[in-house]
Every structure is written in structure tokens, then in C-alpha cells.
Amino acid sequence: MAIRPSLLQRGDTIGLVTLGSPLDANTINTRVQFLRDMGFNIVFGRHVYSSDGIVAASAQQRADDLMNMFRDPSVKMILATRGGTGVQTILPYLNFDVIRQNPKIISGYSDITVLLNSLYQFSNLITFHSLMLIDFRPETPAYNFNQFFEATSTLNSPRMIQNPPNLDLRGLVPGNVTGPIVGGNMTSLVNALGTPYEINTKGKILFLEETHSPTTMIFRYLTQLLMSGKFQDCLGIIIGECTNCLVSYGTTYEDLINALLVPLRKPLIINLTTGHGFYKAAIPIGANVNLNSTENTLTVIEPTVS
Description:
Elements: E1 13-17, H1 25-37, E2 41-44, H2 59-71, E3 75-80, H3 96-101, E4 105-108, H4 113-123, E5 127-129, H5 142-153, E6 159-160, E7 170-173, E8 176-185, H6 186-191, E9 205-211, H7 215-227, H8 230-233, E10 236-243, H9 253-260, E11 268-272, E12 283-285, E13 288-292, E14 297-300
Parallel strand pairs: 1-2, 1-3, 3-4, 4-5, 8-9, 9-10, 10-11
Antiparallel strand pairs: 5-12, 6-14, 7-11, 8-13, 13-14
């Protein structure tokens, strides 16, 4: 069983880290004020405001910021400011034993995907494919906050992950499987293939989402995951949205799923609202979930915090 971090409560301290691309100071400051207005205390990694071209700071510096948050006993949750690119470069500098001994909530998506899955694989820690600092603003739909806090601040179990009204999950291959859920952003996962940090899908339920990639690129990603055995190893498949993805050669995102994934005959659900979409379901990486693609349900069957 994976390690559950302690639940988050108002008045707790959140540690902010910029682990990929830089984020402008004004955005950081306005989002931080939103969190403070919600009742949280904030501490900053040394390089939260830094900028070094494509990334915020060196891989060692960004990794040190993350490790310092895990070591700080006052920090209850670690929140990524944003994703962007470059997160995988910090992985060789992390001490997964120290992280295992100091479990904390950590939340993010996009390029943070590779970190979330690595923390589960190497530290056995449940992590959260959910909100980042950039999402803490008045325009964020209540659904996103409800999902986030239900996953991180309650012991509710079982918890059904449901899309907002009129955005139903759809089963393409019927079935019923239970196992740990892994996955997230396709670009992030494909970029880690062939490295020590590539995702392990054996006996897992794999979910995927993507943004701003034409379907020619999605075809490449799905093919690479197929040729790497990731779909063959998994128990079932959950496909999220492809946000702002252009259609190429008259072939849609769903066309690719039907052509490449349906023939595997693994339980398969599509249309999960999470990640880069407007609505963001909170997915607990490493937690046991039930995927019932006959009834079109996704249920977290255990508490994800303690």
C-alpha cells in the first residue's frame, strides 16, 4: 500500500516551488495572496521567482528547493507554481529515501507529471495530479477546488471522480478493474521513456491527457507508448482531454484512440476532465481506484491522505 501524506487544513503551511519553467512575479504574488485569503501560510523556495532561460534555475537548485520543502517539518503541502518544461532534469538530484521518510502532499500537473509518478515509484508516496499555484484565482471553477480539497483535506472513502454535469465519462471498451492509478501528461511521460524514471504501468490503471499537440504528434506519442509496452502492461486505460489539439489529416483525437487503443480490449474510458482542461479532476497517483468502463465510473477506493 502506498504512503498517504497527512491531510491539509486551513492554517497549514504550503511550500511553493518552481520546478520547471519560470513564472512572472506578478502572477506568483496574486496567486499567493489568494491562498493567504483562503487561510494558508506560505513559505517560498529560494528559486520560486528565479529565471534562467527555459527553466527557473539549475536542476540542482530546483531539486534543492524541493528537498528543503520535504525536510521542513512546518510544511504540510508542496505546491508547484507551474509546469512548463525541464522538471525531469531535477530527478537525479532527489533523495527518494528522505522523501519517503517525510511524506507530504504534493500537487501539480503538466510537466510535473514525471515528478508525481517518480515520487510514487521510488518513494511509494501518493501524489496529486491536481492544482498548481497558477490555478488559485477567482476564475477557477468551484469544481476544481472541490476536487482538490476533497482529495487532500478529507478522509472520504470511497470517492467517486465525476466530471461536471453534461460532460460524461464514456466507456469504449467495457470492463471492471481495480489497481493503482498512474499517468498524466503524455508529453511528460513519453519524454521519460528510456530513462531510469520511465513510468511503470504493470498492473496499474493508466490515465493520459495532453494539450496543444496536433493529432500527428498524439499519434507519435500513443505509438511510442504502445511500442514501449505501456498499454500492454496496464490493467485499464483512462483518456482525458486533448486541450486545444489541432486535427491533422482529418484524423481526430478520438479517431486515434479508436484505432490504436480500442483493439487492445483493455477496459477503456474517455473524456475525463483533468490536467490542462478548464475542469480539473484531482487524480491521486498511486492510490487504488476502480475503473468500471461498463458503468462509466471511476472510484478512488481508499483515503488518499491520513
